[in-house]
Design goal:
single chain; about 550 residues; alpha/beta; 8-stranded parallel β-barrel; 5-stranded antiparallel beta sheet; 18 helices; about 30% helix; binds alpha-D-glucopyranose; binds calcium ion
Length: about 550
């Protein structure tokens, strides 16, 4: 594998609205991020991905962009953004922006012009169809609920939106649209960005001609996934985008890719792939149901292990996958992947190490390094996220009681990850001096950065150790490029694997509350990391404590 500048890095995702508010308006902002760069540098972060902070009505929290060349005033100014890039550079850090180009906002000037003249140039920037009484152009269900078609204001047409109605899909079949997008990407790369995280990108290719699919819910609509599985040729667009933009800058790109076909992996992330890397969502989609969140199955430790290893096997040395425990679209990983009632510093550290030591590029989502947990929402009124509100409705319509529906939202709501970053035990978790746009998780008094920064046994300090192990010149080659080989794969509630390069490392996690013994295949030389102060070993037999994780050099 040809080495790339980003292979040995550690990435961190910031959700700007909830990271740090510098001016007391209750909304996190870019100056707030700048003031926390030292915090991130201290942790060992190299690459920072910012969820969108372009000008936006924030109908989907910035994933609905009304001006790709501007910063939303709530997040700051273009000067702030330039200063952030420069300040990051001083610390050898790279800034990634979020590239949201499957759709724009209905407040973007392209869309406004399309409304004014649907048969003109900008009409062809979108998917428009003539409106027919009592009949939709297709029966697809949008990701956030309801049909994907909405009336185009002031016209006799309808437009397509796979996401929210304020997120009209851009017509990638139109070369003028693609030109506009490439121009914008290059404009940002010229400003010194390290690259982009690429949003919802698999949706840009629609199966043409647009048609109905088999309905899969009582609403008579069909999941968009059926149409996407039927679409081919997305690679033509992605390859063109790579060549016209990222490639010329040696920029980093990480794709939000779902449901890729296995045989396409080399085209996506192999040598000269469309993207540098893409996220592994195998664990996050596990247990999902076509019916909705209320019907989703929980994931067990054995399932988690299986999902991780499945991805590792599939990717092999084709390329580099990006490993996550959570992001802004998912519940907190510790609440999801650790059996109920067992969330504690030890189990959080175990999960962290199991994920971090996988082959690939580790991404940490803000607050993950503190072990932030899901939010105990008391009522649906406390939830802001549009997809959670839709899933709540879906659950009620399917016959769930309000409490059952709320439980589904508690388990999966995107707002679990969107509450303010917990900086201190002070008011509003130290996130803002004003009224926060979303209430902090009440557990901020015990889980916060201030109390963890100088505590050598904190979850944050453990993350720091994991990061410095990845960067340790002695082990770096093995951790970054070594192969991954599962061990004791059939053992219940145990996840273990080798990383083999110029060294041989063994990662062993006792993924349960009870103790458990293993017999090492050979003696170990050194304990590289341990979430307990001790290790119980007799000869080759090691007895692991509750949720103990060991990284051994053999
Ligand atoms: C991606 C984003 C998500 C957003 C959606 C539409 O999945 O991560 O937050 O709602 O795309 O842009
Ligand atoms: Ca602010």
């Amino acid at each position: 594998m040809n080495k790339k500048w980003w292979h040995d890095k550690v990435a961190y995702q910031i959700y700007p609205k909830s990271f740090y508010d510098s001016n007391g308006d209750g909304i996190g902002d870019i100056p707030g991020i700048i003031s926390k760069l030292d915090y991130l540098q201290d942790l060992g972060i190299d690459i920072i991905w910012l969820s969108p902070c372009y000008r936006s009505p924030l109908a989907d929290q910035g994933y609905d962009i009304s001006d790709y060349y501007d910063i939303d005033p709530r997040f700051g100014t273009m000067e702030d953004m330039e200063r952030l890039i420069a300040e990051a550079k001083k610390r050898n850090m790279y800034i990634l922006m979020d590239l949201v180009v499957n759709h724009c906002s209905d407040e973007h000037e392209w869309f406004k012009k399309a409304c004014e003249d649907p048969d003109g140039k900008y009409g062809n920037f979108f998917y428009l169809r003539d409106k027919k009484e009592g009949e939709l152009p297709t029966n697809w269900r949008s990701y956030f609920g309801g049909p994907v078609w909405e009336d185009l204001p002031g016209t006799s047409k309808q437009y397509l939106h796979l996401f929210h109605k304020k997120q009209p899909d851009l017509n990638w079949e139109n070369p003028e649209v693609r030109e506009e997008i490439y121009k914008n990407i290059n404009w940002w790369l010229d400003k010194g960005l390290g690259g982009f995280r690429i949003d919802a990108i698999i949706n840009i290719k629609k199966a043409l001609p647009l048609r109905d699919y088999e309905p899969d819910r009582v609403d008579g609509l069909s999941s968009v996934h059926k149409m996407l599985a039927d679409a081919s040729g997305v690679g033509t667009f992605l390859g063109e985008m790579r060549d016209r933009t990222f490639k010329k800058y040696d920029a980093f790109s990480v794709g939000e890719v779902f449901n890729e076909k296995e045989e396409e992996l080399p085209e996506f992330i192999g040598e000269n792939g469309y993207f540098s890397t893409m996220f592994d969502f195998n664990e996050t989609i596990f247990g999902g149901s076509e019916k909705g969140w209320y019907d989703a199955a929980p994931i067990t430790p054995d399932d988690y292990k299986k999902c991780c290893f499945e991805t590792q096997r599939k990717i092999g040395d084709i390329g580099f996958v990006s490993n996550i425990i959570e992001n802004h679209d998912e519940p907190r990983g510790v609440s999801r992947y650790i059996p109920e009632g067992d969330c504690c510093p030890e189990s959080k550290k175990m999960l962290a190490a199991l994920n971090f030591m996988l082959r690939g590029l580790p991404f940490i989502y803000q607050g993950q390094e503190l072990g932030m947990e899901n939010v105990p929402f008391r009522s649906i009124e406390e939830v802001d996220d549009i997809s959670s509100l839709d899933e709540y409705k879906v659950a009620l319509e399917a016959g769930c009681t309000p409490e059952e529906a709320l439980n589904a939202v508690r388990r999966f709501s995107r707002d679990n990850a969107r509450t303010p970053m917990q900086w201190t035990s002070g008011e509003n978790a130290g996130f803002t001096t004003g009224e926060p746009w979303l209430k902090p998780n009440p557990n901020y008094t015990s889980i916060n950065a201030a109390s963890q920064e100088n505590d050598p046994d904190s979850v944050r300090s453990f993350y720091k150790k994991l990061i410095s192990l990845r960067k340790n010149p002695e082990y770096k080659e093995t951790i970054v490029y070594g192969t991954l080989e599962p061990l004791w794969e059939d053992r219940h509630n145990l996840m273990a694997y080798y990383r083999k390069g110029d060294k041989t490392l063994l990662v062993i996690g006792n993924y349960q509350r009870d103790m458990q013994s293993v017999t090492l295949p050979s003696p170990f030389r050194k304990i590289l990391l341990n979430n307990y102060p001790d290790m119980t070993a007799e000869g080759l037999t090691v007895t692991l404590h509750s949720y103990q994780i060991l990284i051994l050099e053999l």
